[in-house]
Amino acid sequence: MKVIVIGATGAVGKAVAEELGQRHQVVPVGSRSGQYQVDITDIASVRALFAQVGKVDAVVVAAGALHFAPLADFTPEQFYVGLNSKLMGQVNVALVARDYLNDGGSITLTSGIVADEPIRNGASATMVNAAVEGFARAAAIELPRGLRINAVSPTVLEESMGSYGPFFVGFVPVPARRAALSYARSVDGAQTGQVYQAW
Amino acid sequence: MKVIVIGATGAVGKAVAEELGQRHQVVPVGSRSGQYQVDITDIASVRALFAQVGKVDAVVVAAGALHFAPLADFTPEQFYVGLNSKLMGQVNVALVARDYLNDGGSITLTSGIVADEPIRNGASATMVNAAVEGFARAAAIELPRGLRINAVSPTVLEESMGSYGPFFVGFVPVPARRAALSYARSVDGAQTGQVYQAW
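Predict the joint structure of the above. Result:
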């Protein structure tokens, strides 16, 4: 299979590219480096990427920004950081991917454990991750040609505990290679409309 | 209790105002009619409403627009109809209500059955309703002074089958007064971070 991995320079994306690269042709895409680059918040940029890469069998997105802050300090504008990037950025990819996926191909999006398990400063993160899972659940029943869509919900990564650790005290971190398995399950599997919890 | 009901002219809001009016002082708010009006998509309009009404014990929102269309036709702009209105409109109310609620007061938002049970044309509806529930789940753990927040997820109303019936073939509709009970459970109850399914 030919698989686009968007966010391939991030901790999750790098592990996904390694895992899938064992048996598939991976096209890594970054936001600011590498041969292929995309700004997922801009659907025109997403269209340009797929026009370059052409037909594929699977699309993985492990990208998207979120704002973290105490609820008391959150402004509407700060909620839009995550809505524009992690939510609509991934939706943009799904909308465009639909036209470039071969029959039976798949889209795999990224949510996160805080969709189910809220943390302090995480009002936007829970909202956005729950929305990503909702989109995958709903899009699954309308995709044509046997196309599939799932979301992977990783917990905090061992590799990210340096920066995210203080937000996730008491959570059991997993290595990025464990999270990558959930993406492989979506890409190589046959289910659709699922949320695979990598925790 | 003094309870603001935003969306009091809608099918759900009217029934909520009747149910709560049996034992509480209800302040009904519409978008285009009545003594109190608000545009929930504009946080300045929400601030102006609360400045007029003053301190309250509970806030109910049964308002917010969504775009319905086949996934194949959906544009990013159409996804933003629901993100700006049903999602961020309700978040705007919650953010402002925080400063006007008496200790122990509550916020009750509205999601919908398609958060869990997707329907054709409903990719935005599932996404937005899931996001509303996520926001309630996360905000609940950060609200001060014993403030509570829940979401009610109504199924299709008997009263709305004329317009929404074709989208909900096979769903069991409930009367608006049944949906209103779930709002009463949130307002008069003591739980927080819950989603009450009115179906």
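The radius of gyration of chain B is 16 Å.
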